[in-house]
Amino acid sequence: MAGERERVRWGILATGGIAAAFTADLVDMPDAEVVAVASRTDASAKAFAERFGIPRAYGDWASLAEDADVDIVYVATPHSAHRAAAGMCLEAGRHVLCEKAFTLNAREAEELVALAKRHDRFLMEAMWMYCNPLVRRLKALVDDGVIGEVRTVQADFGLAGPFPSSHRLRDPAQGGGALLDLGVYPVSFAQLLLGEPSDITARAVLSDEGVDLQTGALLSWESGALASVHCSINGGTPVAASVTGSAGRIDIPGGFFFPDHFVLHRDGRDPETFTADPASGARNSLKHEAAEAMRALRAGETESPVVPLDGSLAVMRTLDAIRDRIGVRYPGETGETSETSETGETG
């Protein structure tokens, strides 16, 4: 990008709910311009373009990828298509912000990172939690040792459902199940604070289609820290998180990946509540990840220090390991799951 004030021109690839939420935030940002949208059909692309006042609508992905007026493409397909969609854009010279889970598995994520480096393009996982100002404040407090050495992390994300067998979340071909859609948040939260775990155990309840309806995992680190993470598409949970250290604790009572407040408890002190700055935007705003991507582009960076590619790869390795433990494998993946009879449950 040529300068700090130059508008960044966005293309939107896919037209589902998360694409609409992201685009709604983008059009309110004075330094962003949405110039094109693509879908698998002309009708879907044109309807989306009309809804948000986007000048160009494509009924195929390749036309968007080849559009030289697009600086960066936001990939909002189901994660089973992230490798193909983001890879096409990178090869065509576009920068990419790709929804999470980053890809279907770590191998695909490594391929995308290699493509971005080969073409000298910016690539970032759309882990909006990492870009949230209050989450960044929490991480800074933990990194500064305010609660001492981290001992445990707990986080959950569950939806009540039920989802019919025809739903995307139940479809193995679309990377269905609780883990990649919801579990990516608790896992990413734990690894934001502790890095990649050294050991992983997990159990799950699987659907008739072979995806996980709910999964619980215990992650451990050589430091002695433990993280208990849980996700579900058959039971609503508090969507809460806590971080306990040797000298205190931080609780996020609800919506931990887009909090409006968290509470710091320290021995011998009154609890201290940290609240989101109203000026930073709505609690569920996706503007922070867009702003970080645009900041990086203007700075000539090929990845974000807030959502580093090594961190996204590490999360994908953890998700792969959990799937291996619970016996979930998607069409087209090779190899056998290990320890399924010991660590997985079906039901």
What key attributes describe this structure?
disordered C terminus, 6-stranded parallel sheet, about 350 residues, 9-stranded mixed sheet, 15 strands, about 35% helix, alpha/beta, 11 helices
Counting H and I runs of at least 4 residues, what is the number of helices?
11
What's the end-to-end separation, in Å? 52 Å
Structural class: alpha/beta
Low-confidence stretches: 336-347
Strand order of the largest sheet: 14-13-12-11-7-10-9-8-15
Please give the share of residues in helix: 25-40%
Q: What does the radius of gyration come to?
A: 20 Å
Mean pLDDT value: 93
Give the SSE string.
EHEHEHEHEHEHHEHEEEEEEEHHHE
Outline: globular
Largest β-sheet summary: 9 strands, mixed
Percentage of residues in DSSP E strands: 15-25%
Total strands: the figure is: 15
Give a written overview of the molecule:
The chain is of the alpha/beta class and 347 residues long. It has eleven helices and 15 strands. The strands form two sheets. Strands 14-13-12-11-7-10-9-8-15 form a nine-stranded mixed sheet. It has a six-stranded parallel sheet with strand order 3-2-1-4-5-6, with helices on both faces. Strand 4, helix 4 and strand 5 form a beta-alpha-beta unit. The longest helix has 18 residues. The radius of gyration is 20 Å and the shape is globular. The N and C termini lie far apart (52 Å). The C terminus is likely disordered.
Explain the layout of strands and helices:
Blueprint: E1 8-13, H1 17-26, E2 32-38, H2 42-52, E3 56-58, H3 61-65, E4 72-75, H4 82-91, E5 95-98, H5 106-118, E6 123-125, H6 128-131, H7 133-143, E7 150-158, H8 178-194, E8 199-206, E9 212-220, E10 226-232, E11 241-245, E12 248-252, E13 261-266, E14 272-275, H9 287-298, H10 309-326, H11 340-343, E15 345-346
Parallel strand pairs: 1-2, 1-4, 2-3, 4-5, 5-6, 7-10, 8-15
Antiparallel strand pairs: 7-11, 8-9, 9-10, 11-12, 12-13, 13-14
